[in-house]
Amino acid sequence: MSIADNIRAFQQELAGTRCRLVAVSKTHPVELIQEAYDAGQRLFGENRVQELTAKQPELPADIEWHLIGHLQTNKVKYIAPFVHTIQSIDSLKLLLEVERQAAKHQRQIRVLLQFHIADEETKFGLSWEEAETMLRDAAVQQLQHVRIAGVMGIATNTDDESKLRQEFGTLRGYFERLKAEFFNNNQEFSEISMGMSGDFRLAIEEGSTLIRVGSAIFGSRAYPA
Ligand SMILES: *Cc1c(COP(=O)(O)O)cnc(C)c1O
Questions:
Q1: What CATH number is given to the structural domain containing 80?
Q2: Which PANTHER family does the protein's record reference (predicted)?
Q3: Which of the listed residues 52, 115, 196 should we mutate to test ligand 1's pocket, taking the one with most ligand atoms within 8 A of CB?
Q4: How many domains does the chain have?
């Protein structure tokens, strides 16, 4: 199966659902990203700022770039001119810096709140309480260049289906509670980003609207990311 074949298989799999594919291109060269683009893929995800800023100018301007990895506040400025969605918002400080940089460039940047749903200690993300506290902050009510569009989570790296379903269900539950408490009349708040190469089918069954898939499209990565 070529990259183009893989993209077409995902297009078929997602047809008629409300779930979209973010092709995770980290570690892969622009030639392979172009191949996916030529097969019709437009949403791409990268987890490192330096890699994203190096690739973006080499590729078509209508790609919707998603930053999916941990983002340091001092690096927001490098991606603010072009990034479409930052999926990894995990602090108020970061959110306010995205607002500041987006304003500088007179742009809107879409963001997702990243929640910690996995067992692993090391995975970044907010707890429910942290998210609530953040959204109650007066500064968040006044955001003008940031649109909070939903939630993102990374499940535990496991084959245990019931555990994965439970974690995906937890994230969907957070989404629904936030929607009810903070975004009731906001059509924009609509995304649940969950599911990767190993677990995207379960994630779709549990309500994912954005799956982030790398190795099932591009093959295994030459070096870990
Ligand atoms: C690398 C990565 C993915 C894609 O992982 P695959 O298993 O290759 O599909 C998804 N989400 C995040 C946050 C990642 O860093």
A1: 3.20.20.10
A2: PROLINE SYNTHETASE CO-TRANSCRIBED BACTERIAL HOMOLOG PROTEIN (PTHR10146), PYRIDOXAL PHOSPHATE HOMEOSTASIS PROTEIN (PTHR10146:SF14)
A3: 196
A4: 1
